[in-house]
Structures
1.
Amino acid sequence: MPSEFSRIHYEEVTSTNDLCKEEHKKSSTITVITADKQTQGRGRSNKAWASPKGNVSFSFGFTSSGLIDGLSVKAGLTVAKTISKSLRRPVQLKWPNDLIFESKKVGGILVEAENVEEKFILVIGIGINFSIVPKEGHWGDLNIDNYELKEKFISELIKNLLKDIVDDPSPDWHREWNEYCVHLNQEVELENNEAYVFKGVNNLGRMIGEKSSQTYEISESSLKVKGLY
């Protein structure tokens, strides 16, 4: 895949993911859409994701010959590493795609796909609270209100997504993901109220859960973690 990209920035949009998908259909070039504010931001299962000013709304669109297993989990690792290194905030990961800082959710990943002419347009949507007034008790932010730092972060994030996702994905990325996990080896509860000990993720981004001395592979779900919002 080519490593060239085009970036368009807006002060306000409905959804960066929607715009990214439409812009990418016009060109084979990797497309990046950023915005200071979204009015119709969304998370998994179409849950509303508030995106006021002070949030970074970012979408990265590219064409692939097929779907990529665990893409949102893998992208979460890239985001966490970029924040930790370029902004010096020790962000951790909550499976499958939440960004955690000081026990609060400061961001998330939403991957969407569309089949076009026997290929797939994949869009990685990333929302991060840099400096906001939280509207819900489990929200937090990075406490950063600096335009130059935001732009530096966005540049680093684009570079790292190109490297980690598009150009040369590491087959052992999941081992590094486990190092960033905030609930590794802890008991977690799934949406169906079943409890497991979280043993990490595999190279498909699936959760490895342990229960009654047996291990299970579990596809994307939501987790409850004791002591974490």
2.
Amino acid sequence: MYEKHLSTQFDNELNSISSKVLELGGLVESQIRQAMYALAEFSAEVADQVEQDEARVNSLELEIDRELSNIIARRQPTAIDLRLLLAISKTTANLERVGDEAAKIARMVKRLIDSGKGSRLPTGDLRRAADLAAEQLRRALDAFARLSAEDAVAIIKDDDEVDREFEGFVRKLITYMVEDPRTITASLDLLTLAKAIERIGDHAKNIAEFIIYIVMGADVRHGTLEEMEAATR
């Protein structure tokens, strides 16, 4: 995923840490799938498993951070390698936050189950947004593995679709609350859940921006889409 170095050991260290980032990504992807299954089936048991997995996510994040610190201290990397390591650090932080959002979804699912009112709300409408967000994350991890700036730009372009799904769901929830005030408490929990899904899409977009930074050396976090596309040419 990067140019070979004179030191084979350095290459091995970079390969190791990149593999752990992808492992972390796979773990949080699984959390998202489980959290949405818990919502679809109103399964408190699966929701509990999502929360339990958070400890492994946090542990892996700390492990990656320690390895990054050791590499920077021992190797004193040059510009392109330092970009890679900094972007890996930021990618890891975003993946950990995706795990936080999945755990938040799991907690909301349990609240909906306890309230007994969640089944009367349009929880199924969230699956489209959740599927989009999860797919964005999967694509971001694939782009990270291949360091593809072009794929990263495509992910950023598609982020608006997740936002549109979220906005449409919010409008529907407002209608439910106006028509039946008894659903307000459960609807607000569902709104928190929907916002967590939207944030997962945002984190996937952030990872895509870091990929462009690694490959092109351009910080596109606050740029326009046209500027991002220009940076990858």
3.
Amino acid sequence: MKVILGLGCDRGTPEETIRTAIVDALASVGLSTDDVVAAASIDKKSDEIGLLSVCKQFGWDCTWYAASELAKVDVPNPSEVVMKYVGTPSVGEAAAILRAGSNKEDLIVEKYKYRGHDGKNATVSICKVISPLPLKGEDKGEG
């Protein structure tokens, strides 16, 4: 099965914490990093060194969404706290759903929360791929 990861984290979360959260979330449903097609998150995290490093390590394209785009997605676990800080009630769940071209019924892992030894938090949502956006470098039929 191919999946999309929706990722969220505290500002300055180290690569190790994010990688552990991802591996643990995937393992919780019998999947591995080999099953991941791509990742997605909020555009406010597009400069997060830990997120960028993990995506690069695994060769995943990461799509960054504006809070206004994420806020339109129906998710099972909206959060007022997330809304207060980033302007959308969901980051990981909404980003995974959008990138997978899916809906909340296709979330395999809704919101896996992990707190690293460093005290930083990372969240991972996992969604089945239905009709994902083309990855960078894929033929988009233009010609």
4.
Amino acid sequence: MADLKLLEVFPNPAPQRDFVIEHTHHEFTSVCPMTGHPDFATITVRYVADRSCVELKSLKLYFHGFRNEGIFFEAVTNRICDDLGAVLKPRQLTIISHWKARGGFTSIVTAEWQPKKPKTPKRRR
């Protein structure tokens, strides 16, 4: 099972500027929970860092944690998005998973993470 504790970060070298960081992992694998067959994908992580950037070896090890996990395309894409959002707290984050053909279909799943806005207290009347 993928463990978000594997994800390591380092300080953003230019926090005063918005710049896009894009990492693509071409050998992502997980397992179909219905059939038990392996699923293969290219995962693209695209984000605008705030204070932290993800370290690539730790990202690779995190991705490898999905190799034997039975999980649907939609669930894995959203889980990666939630995990990276929680660790990085970026200004913007998009995860794109492009799944290889099986049964005549390819699938692309895109998930976006937005920082949580602080709740404003309700006014009393």
